[in-house]
Design a protein that fits this description.
Number of helices: 3
CATH topology: Jelly Rolls
CATH superfamily: q2cbj1_9rhob like domain
Oligomer: single chain
CATH class: Mainly Beta
Number of domains: 1
Structural class: alpha+beta
Shape: globular
Radius of gyration: 16 Å
Strand order of the largest sheet: 1-2-3
CATH architecture: Sandwich
Number of strands: 3
Strand content: 5-15%
Distance between the termini: 17 Å
């Protein structure tokens, strides 16, 4: 997929873009299987809020379990996911001059009833997360 002007325009206008079919069903199924396998291997951890020494577990804010995706990954599906997002990162960077240099990705599993309060995914003392 190549990010195009409508994607960058949507992000610039409302801060969000929805791209139906961004990942094909086969890749999504492989990523789901990978996440479930990692969960069975007990590699997921309770998610927290904040970072560094200020990171805390707040189930009232965030109730998921996460497993970070290493980049580069030795898993083909994770590499394909990173490649797809990297195209978006480069194209949106070019269109909106964001200065986004890295990808940060993780799996998240939400048990029944768990959620994540609306938030901006940016730390107070770090402006690296821009997209």
């Amino acid at each position: 997929m190549r990010a195009d002007a409508p994607l960058a325009d949507a992000i610039a206008a409302s801060g969000v873009a929805i791209v139906p079919g961004f990942l094909d069903g086969a890749l999504t199924a492989r990523l789901r299987a990978r996440a479930l396998g990692l969960d069975r291997a007990e590699t997921f951890v309770a998610a927290g809020v904040g970072h560094g020494e200020s990171r805390v577990r707040r189930a009232d804010v965030r109730g998921d379990r996460i497993a970070w995706i290493d980049t580069p990954s030795d898993d083909a599906a994770e590499r394909a996911l990173a490649d797809a997002f990297d195209v978006v990162r480069r194209d949106v960077n070019r269109a909106l001059s964001l200065g986004a240099f890295d990808l940060e990705m993780h799996y998240a599993i939400y048990p029944p009833g768990a959620g994540y309060a609306r938030h901006r995914d940016r730390f107070r003392d770090d402006d690296a997360r821009v997209l």
